[in-house]
Each structure stands twice: as structure tokens, then as C-alpha cells.
Amino acid sequence: MSKKFGIADDICARMLDWRHDIHANPETAFQEHRTAQLVADALMEMQIPLHRGLGGTGVVGTLKNGEGPTIALRADMDALDLQELGDRVHKSTRAGKMHGCGHDGHTTMLLGAAVQLARHRPFRGTVHFVFQPAEENEGGGKKMVEEGLFKMFPADAVYGMHNIPNIPRGKFAIRTGIATAFLDTFEIAVTGSGCHAATPEKGIDPILVSADLVSALQGIVSRRIGAMDAAVVSVTQIHGGDTWNVVPETVTLRGTVRTLDAEIQNQVEAAMKQVCAGVAQTHGAKIDLSYMRGYPGVINTPAETDAAASAAANLVGVEQVQTDIKPAMGSEDFAFMLQERPGAYICIGAGETANDPPLHNPYYDFNDAILPLGAAYWVELVKQQLPAA
């Protein structure tokens, strides 16, 4: 098969235009109005019935061709709050916002597949094309589910895909079971007693308390979680103080917790509460922990994982599909869809060299060379999962 993997030349050309347009006009969580309009316009041109508004800016197109099974294919649309530093013709035109994770490419590949499937209809059944807002941090997938995604658009299974720059182009990777981490966030308010910096003994220094607390939190993973159990506790923000010569009254810490198992997740939360209480008592300070459960882990179901791997192998060969990839400590709100329906989340390689910028890097850009392969994967999956017309 050619490098276009059976995707028509005109569709490949349109995908390139769509991708560069979306990249140049990035929109972050729940603000994807222009992107949603581009998607809706393309679906309407294909005469694919669509619904708008789920999750705020979500778009769902439905292609039905007779009676048969139903599957849902999902792509995310949102960009990041990140200043793009790369030098390219389609560089972001919006300060402080960029498609640094490749959702512009994900949206484009699913649109390309929709055109190909609408044009040829090589199946009997129904395909829902789910274009989701707000994957980055804000849980747009959860919101779509809560607002009735699978009640309005029933599906026997749901599938997702993400580009990965450190996997070579032409390869795919997937695993059965846990594939991405559970993601929780926390905020800790440390309250001491403010005083003059020249006489710290007259107060309770929340900065010193916070320093001890950060060190103690790192001990949870190294000393209270088993060596074979994955967990990451990261303090990513420390805010406190306004001037040089005043010990402040309060300090705020924020961060994330990532685990690969619900029981370990519970253990980390309990340990954090215990550590906060102990450090507070040691210093005579007050420490309030707010622990927020976030994205669950992506858990690929066995049959659907096999289906995804098989579809990829039909395009690139079995030897190019890794089926025992290690779980990622990153997180994905596609997990909320997998809590409702069986399904699988596959990684498509996008790497050209060992020095390609990683995801969420200001120099990153989606690799246009994989657009035809990504679209062809969706088409192959539909042909495999739905009976031939």
C-alpha cells in the first residue's frame, strides 16, 4: 500500500489544510468555537448528520449505513496555554496558546476518515465521530458523558488515538488493561504566624514548614509505596510572601498525584493527610489539605485492544505494532468514556529523529506525514468492526 494507505489524494490535501488552519488558530478548553465550526462545516459538506453542544463545544457526527453494530471514534480538539516558539508558516496566531499536544492532528485524522467512509461506505452499521473539547486538564470527556453522550449516541465500543513523538513513524503501540495514570490534584494551605524577618522566633514560619512538608511528601513514594507500585507526587507550585523582610502568614502549595492503581491512589491520599497532620504538629502550624480526584486511568478492554492492534497491523504489519507498551504516567480523559463503554486507546508513532520535540514542548509540531496513516487506521478499524456492505 502507498504512503497514503488508501486515503484519496484530495482527502490528504484537505487534511493538510485543516491541520494547518487549526494549528494556526488554537483554542483552549471549552473555547473551541472556531475549531468546532470547522469540524461541523466539514461534516455538513459530507452530508453527515451532526449534533453540536455536548460538553459545550463538542461535535458528534453520525454516519449510518443500514443495520448493524455501532462504534464511536473520538478525537480531542483543544490546545494548550503555551507560547509557541517554533518557526513555521502555520505557527499559532494567538499569543500564549498553541497546539502543543497534537490535537489539531487528531481532529484532522478523524475528519479525513469521515470523508473516506462517507464517500465509500464500506460497512453496514453506524459510526459516531466524536470531536471532544477540553481534554487538557478540564475533563471535557467527562462532561460529554455526563451530558448524555452514550445515551444520545449508543455505541458498542469506543476508540481513541494519540500521536507519540518518541515512537517512530509507521509504528503503533497499545496494551491491554491500564494504559495511563490516574490523575489527582491537591492544594495545601500552610498557615503560620507572620512576623518580622529579623525575629522569626516570634512567629511560625510557613515557608520553613512548607520546605519540610515538600520533603516529607517525597518520602511517601520512596518509603510508603512498594517499589513495584507506580506513584508520583509532584509539588508544582509554591506561593507565599510579598516582601523581603516579612515572614508571611500563609503559603499555598499545589501539585499532582499520579498512580496506576486505585488502591495505591487511596494509599497516597491517606499518607498525604497523615504527613500534613504530622508536619503541622511538629511546627505548631495549621495545614489544610484539599485533595481532588481527577482523571481515572485509561483501561483498555481485551477484545477491543486486540481489535485496535489488528487494524493497525493490517496497515503496517504485525511487527510494527507493539502490544506490551508500558503504562504512561500521563493522563487522559478518554478514561471517562471507557468507564461507560468497552474500548481501546492506541498510540500512533510520530517520531522522525531521537531529537524530536516532545509533547507539551513549545517547539513541538504535529507530524503531517502521519495524517494519511491515522485516517486509514480509523477506516480500517470501522471495516474490521462493522460487517462489509
From TrEMBL:
<dbReference type="Pfam" id="PF01546">
    <property type="entry name" value="Peptidase_M20"/>
</dbReference>
<dbReference type="Pfam" id="PF07687">
    <property type="entry name" value="M20_dimer"/>
</dbReference>
<dbReference type="InterPro" id="IPR011650">
    <property type="entry name" value="Peptidase_M20_dimer"/>
</dbReference>
<feature type="domain" description="Peptidase M20 dimerisation">
    <location>
        <begin position="185"/>
        <end position="277"/>
    </location>
</feature>
<dbReference type="InterPro" id="IPR036264">
    <property type="entry name" value="Bact_exopeptidase_dim_dom"/>
</dbReference>
<dbReference type="InterPro" id="IPR002933">
    <property type="entry name" value="Peptidase_M20"/>
</dbReference>
<dbReference type="InterPro" id="IPR017439">
    <property type="entry name" value="Amidohydrolase"/>
</dbReference>
<protein>
    <submittedName>
        <fullName>Amidohydrolase</fullName>
    </submittedName>
</protein>
<keyword id="KW-0378">Hydrolase</keyword>
